[in-house]
Specification:
Elements (H helix, E strand, L loop, with lengths): L16 H15 L4 H59 L8 H5 L2 H6 L2 H14 L3 H16 L2 E7 L15 E8 L6 E7 L8 E6 L6 E7 L18 H7 L2 E3 L20 E3 L6 E2 L4 E2 L13 E3 L7 H4 L2 H17 L1 H22 L3
Antiparallel strand pairs: 1-5, 1-6, 2-3, 3-4, 4-5, 7-10, 8-9
The structure holds a DNA duplex.
DNA sequence: CGAATTTGACCCGCGC
DNA sequence: GCGCGGGTCAAATTCG
């Protein structure tokens, strides 16, 4: 629902009419030829500019009022949407096991169905209930489901040996590989894993080497485990979603724009990479915080792409880190149209409130 | 021999 | 409507 993009709420507040006049004055002073006729032209222009200023001010006022209305509508709609989502969450979860059905599956025997995990069993059970719903509801639920899944996406990057092509990430959970694909944007194959420890565990992960640095493996986790961790990770921190919150691994909540500091390796923005295994290595140049020890088994260190980290607490106090963090936040906030709109609304609201109190404007 | 992995085929959403 | 590409399935193969 990108209706913020329908209305350009950005305001160019850098209106400086005086600048032009000053420029003219400076120019005439510079030439040293202050002709009377030129002064007349300047005076006339100043008058025009004053008029223009008044016109723009009134226009600005109108726009501010319109903006306030738009923001109010936006907030109202958003609240309605949130309410609707909360009421529909149960339904969305019911159908969250996926809607796709292969032709072969419909004619497959029960033995084949036994090979499927409980996900598919749930699919069968809930598929019936969703059949009764209308197509509109179905598509709506699908969108909500997608948003629901989106809210649980965690991206983790790990430093591994570039020669190691296994794409296996030892994160303490038991994964079953169910597919591999070469994607268009990255020549390195992407592997698809499903959590195989608990039959009904909906968590999936995609593992792919970074196109920029082949030694870095990017794992994308989708969903939340409904069971405890099977074993301790062999190296570095756990990269599952439950511990991800503790480690502040990049968790895409809702839309990517809501992440103040996007740290996906594929994104164009800078990356803070916390290597939680070597405390003394700091790559200052690209603000990569390395923190690595040697793994007892593989020797691979795990870098956790993150915004902040409990283990990286000492780095948070570093002025470079804080400055970088502030810059990142400022950048993402200024890029966010909804933030701009909210800010404009807040400012205009304050001004209007102040004017009402003082009776001026 | 059962479990895990590989891999080609299939499905489906999306852009043109 | 068609083609493309990402994601998934499931038969074949490998491994312990």
């Amino acid at each position: 629902m990108e209706f913020t993009s329908l209305v350009d709420t950005s305001l160019d507040l850098s209106f400086r009419p005086r600048q032009k006049v000053l420029k003219q004055e400076v120019q005439s002073d510079f030439t040293g030829l202050s002709i009377e006729r030129e002064n007349m032209v300047v005076k006339n222009e100043a008058g025009d500019l004053l008029e223009e200023l008044n016109r723009v001010s009134s226009e600005n006022k109108k726009l501010t009022e319109m903006l306030t209305v738009v923001c109010e509508n936006y907030n109202a709609l958003r609240n309605q949407m949130m309410e609707y989502m909360s009421t529909q969450n149960g339904v969305a979860e019911d159908t969250s096991a996926g809607s796709r059905k292969r032709k072969a599956e419909s004619i497959s025997n029960p033995v084949n169905n036994n090979n499927n995990n409980n996900n598919n069993n749930m699919d069968v059970v809930h598929g019936r209930s969703s059949e009764s719903s209308s197509s509109d509801e179905e598509s709506c639920c699908k969108k909500l489901r997608e948003e629901h899944i989106k809210a649980k996406v965690t991206i983790v990057s790990m430093k591994t040996d570039a020669s190691d092509t296994s794409l296996i990430v030892k994160d303490g959970y038991q994964w079953r590989k169910y597919g591999q694909k070469v994607t268009r944007d990255n020549p390195c194959p992407r592997a698809y894993f499903r959590c195989s420890f608990a039959p009904g565990c909906p968590v999936k992960k995609k593992v792919q080497r970074s196109i920029e640095d082949q030694s870095i493996v990017v794992a994308t986790y989708e969903g939340e485990h409904n069971h405890p961790q099977t074993s301790k990770p062999e190296s570095g921190p756990s990269t599952n979603t439950s511990t991800a919150s503790r480690l502040n691994v990049t968790t895409i909540a809702g839309t990517t724009t809501s992440v103040p500091c996007s740290t996906t390796l594929n994104s164009s923005g800078p990356t803070i990479t916390l290597d939680l295994t070597a405390p003394k290595t700091v790559e200052k140049r690209d603000m990569k915080m390395n923190h690595s020890t040697t793994s007892p088994t593989s020797g691979n260190s795990i870098r956790t792409t993150t915004t902040t980290s409990a283990a990286g607490g000492e780095y948070q106090n570093r002025p470079e880190f804080q400055q970088f963090l502030i810059e990142q936040m400022a950048t993402s906030l200024t890029k966010d149209p909804s933030f701009k709109a909210a800010l404009a609304a807040a400012i205009s609201g304050k001004i209007l409130q102040h004017n009402n109190q003082t009776g001026r404007w």
